[in-house]
Amino acid sequence: MPVDAVIFDMDGVLVDSEAYWYQSRIEFAGKRGKAWSMDDQHAAMGRSTVEWAQVMKDRLMLEMSLDDVIEEVRGGVIARIETRLPLLPGAIEAVHKAAAAYPAALASGSPTLVIDTVMKLTGLNSVFRTIVYGDDMKRGKPAPDIYLEAAKRLGISPENCVGIEDSVNGLKSLKAAGMYAIAVPSPGFTLPPTALALADRVLGSLEEFSIALVASLE
Question: Which pLDDT tens digit goes with each residue over 118-139?
Fold first, then answer.
């Protein structure tokens, strides 16, 4: 099937914020005498705000409300991003390349405040045709909802879209939506072979992204 649109994830694809999420969650858990592991992090990655907060509450056996979990962890991430925006190599260029050739969208499960902060700092909010916020979805990744909504807003059939993801849940979401999938593992977060097998292409970084690569999927 021809590719008619490109949809990007944000955390771990455009910005190296997965490390910030990991650090913020470790800090959050440590304040309560608990530990947050890499396995815990993978379980939370890519999910909607309420869903990752529930993962944290369950795994850390917390009595506090989801809103309190969200506020503290999200605040730690935003503070880190505002101190140093961790753009990944080739990210800005890849979005501009994609948007020059295809309708381009962002579909991120990150909290709305985090997405808006990154979009403001990068100026990419004026490049994407549409931005789909995970907070607006009833189900987060690995459910296909956010990618199906992005395709709907772009007016493109899901099977004619390619998504770019770094997480297990994100790749599962793309394939559940019936889309092509390009995996770009986030630095420090290795994807298992079972996840990489879901991808139609695997890149070392977005510096390897090109329109020719997208066309090769057809």
Answer: 999 999 999 999 999 998 998 9
| pTM for the full predicted model | 0.87
Residue (of 135, 132, 133, 123) closest to 95 by Cα position: 123
164 and 203 fall within a common domain: yes
> Which member of 11, 16, 40, 135 is catalytic?
11
**9 catalytic, yes or no?**
yes
Active site residue 11: yes
CATH of the domain at 59: 1.10.150.240
Domain that holds residue 71: 18-83
